[in-house]
Design a protein that fits this description.
Number of strands: 7
Helix content: 55-70%
Mean pLDDT: 80
Low-confidence stretches: none
Strand order of the largest sheet: 2-4-5-7-6
Keywords: Kinase, Membrane, Phosphoprotein, Transferase, Transmembrane, Transmembrane helix, Two-component regulatory system
EC number: 2.7.13.3
Transmembrane segments: 75-95, 115-137, 143-166, 178-194, 200-218, 225-245, 257-277
Strand content: 5-15%
Radius of gyration: 51 Å
Largest sheet: 5 strands, mixed
Number of helices: 16
Protein name: histidine kinase
Distance between the termini: 71 Å
Organism: Nocardioides malaquae
Length: 548
């Protein structure tokens, strides 16, 4: 609801409460009774600024007319209604003074409400007293005091509803809230529907204090309004502990309702103050909890940062060690290559008889020396290639390469091993060129390495199949065997450096564990990828994908 709809609805509700309160006027009273004049502050608060003067005037006219219809003199009706509107404006200005909109979060905010209520009550009381003097009503002082207390009680109740921040959460769950509401309503009805002594209404105050401790401020204020309505209803019927409660003293009729107003003022101030204190305590507790959580989080973050820093330092040290190791391997490998090459060369000269005829035993020993020297030279070459790959020094020379020629060259290189291993080879290579951009020598090494591994891990009478074809934007090389296969647990580490599968160890198959690592580096250097699948005792298949 927007515009003038909400304030007009509030005004109608206020007038209905006024009608309800009129019956509480004792004979000879001025007719003001328990009229909730402070509700005009809420009416004006919910009115848009441009419409406020018009709504204020309408409220004054409607209130004066109602009071006149209920038996109050015309002069006193106008004075009471007009001063009520003025008091509402004054009270709103006080609670929304230099400190900004009222938040009802501290005792200072409550003091502002009490100050505004007393100023508004003073304005209404003085105006009503002057009007009573003009029309010649008896007991002007009693009327002034009664109007002051009535307006003060009304403003103390309704002004907090004009504050901000009423949506603060409640501590109580729905079951507790329902229980508290039921107890409050039943207790209020029970106390104010019987002519008991004046001490019993404070049972209601205890239940209201329960709300102040556990419920939100908005729900607490609503309960105060509900209590006022119940008290007003029964008091208007001349029922309840405060009807005629003059403690055997003769009081002017306009002061007979002061006890009700004092009860309402006491309840409102006490309960709102308790709610503010409870909310502040909860806020402080939450701040302490947040501060403690922040401290714990900061400690944990510091621990994490320290651990990360330690890991970073360790990683830097590992990188440095790795760099030194690579440099060492590269240097040693270069230094070893020349003497190993000379050893191989001299053993070949010995085998050829360049230094005289060898005996069978000498010839066999020379052959063994040559074979082991060549194995050692292959290891050194692998180490040098690995070092170049790790230091990003292995550059790929880009030129058109026919993979058909590369695969055929690999076939020629592997033929001697096929005869020794008693393994057959099947080739499925297209008759037309399959051209990619790359370096022929390195691609030939990929093919030779894969075919050599296939032969090495295939038992006698097994078969190795090599296929080459082009599919879409990829040239695909497939090398398959019917060999021992690779256990599934080894597949993830198959391309790791120096890794040798459990099969190679069980079968005592020689190898450095560097070949497949180098193969993957060369393939990825060409922008391709390599895949493998294997089944133990069935065989292994490698696929090399190279971009066309």
């Amino acid at each position: 609801m927007s515009g003038a709809g909400r304030p007009l609805l509030l005004l109608v509700g206020l007038l209905l409460l006024g009608v309800l309160a009129d019956g509480a006027n004792a004979p000879g009273a001025s007719g003001l009774g328990l009229f909730p004049l402070g509700g005009l502050a809420l009416v004006l608060l919910h009115c848009p600024e441009p419409l406020r003067p018009a709504v204020g005037a309408l409220s004054g006219v409607a209130t004066a007319s109602l009071l006149w219809q209920l038996g109050t003199s015309p002069v006193l009706s106008v004075a009471f209604a007009g001063s009520g509107v003025a008091a509402a404006v004054l009270a709103l200005r006080v609670v929304r003074a230099s400190d900004g909109p009222l938040q009802m979060r501290t005792e200072r905010d409550l003091l502002r409400v009490i100050l505004a209520a007393n100023l508004g009550g003073l304005l209404v009381g003085v105006t009503a007293g002057l009007a009573a003097a003009v029309v010649g009503i008896d007991e002007v002082a009693a009327l002034t005091l009664g109007a002051f207390v009535n307006m003060t009680a009304s403003l103390v109740l309704f002004l907090p509803l004009a504050t901000h921040g009423l949506e603060a959460p409640s501590l109580a769950q729905w079951s507790e809230r329902v229980t508290q509401w039921v107890c409050l309503v039943l207790a209020t009805v029970a106390v104010f529907s019987t002519p008991w002594t004046t001490e019993f209404p404070y049972v209601v105050l205890v239940l209201l204090m329960w709300a102040g401790l556990r419920l939100s401020l908005l729900e607490t204020l609503i309960q105060l309004v509900v209590v006022r309505v119940i008290v007003t209803f029964f008091t208007a019927q001349n029922i309840g502990p405060y009807v005629g409660a003059t403690h055997n003293r003769t009081l002017p009729p306009d002061l007979e309702m002061v006890y009700v107003q004092i009860f309402l003022i006491t309840s409102s101030v006490a309960v709102v103050a308790l709610n503010i204190s409870s909310a502040r305590a909860r806020a402080e507790s939450q701040r302490e909890a947040v501060a403690e959580a922040d401290a714990v989080a900061e400690t944990k973050l510091n621990t994490v940062f320290e651990a990360l820093e330690a890991e970073r330092s360790a990683l830097e040290e590992m990188r440095e060690v790795d760099r030194v190791k690579d440099a060492f391997v590269s240097t040693v490998s270069h230094e070893l290559r020349t003497p190993i090459t000379n050893i191989i060369g001299y053993t070949e000269m010995l085998e050829d008889g360049d230094f005289g005829r060898l005996s069978p035993d000498q010839s066999e020993a020379t052959i063994r020396i040559g074979d082991n020297g060549r194995r050692l030279l292959a290891l050194i070459n692998d180490l040098l290639d690995l070092s170049a790959l790790r230091s990003a020094k292995m550059e790929i020379s880009r030129a058109p390469v026919d993979l058909v020629k590369v695969v055929r060259a690999g076939e020629q290189a592997i033929l001697p091993r096929l005869r020794t291993a008693e393994v057959s080879l099947e080739m499925d290579v297209p008759s037309v060129p399959v051209v990619i951009s790359g370096e022929a020598e390195k691609l030939e090494r990929v093919v030779v390495n894969l075919m050599s591994n296939a032969v090495k891990f295939t038992p006698p009478l097994g078969r190795v199949t090599v296929r080459l074809w082009q599919e879409a934007r990829w040239a695909i090389i497939e090398v398959a065997d019917t060999g021992y296969g690779i256990p599934e647990k080894d597949l993830n580490r198959l391309f790791s450096q120096f890794f040798r599968s459990s099969v190679s160890q069980e079968k005592h198959i020689q190898g450095t564990g560097l070949g497949l690592s180098i193969v993957r580096s060369i393939v990825e250097g060409h922008g391709g990828q390599i895949e493998v699948t294997s089944t133990v005792n069935v065989g292994t298949t490698f696929w090399v994908y190279l971009p066309v």
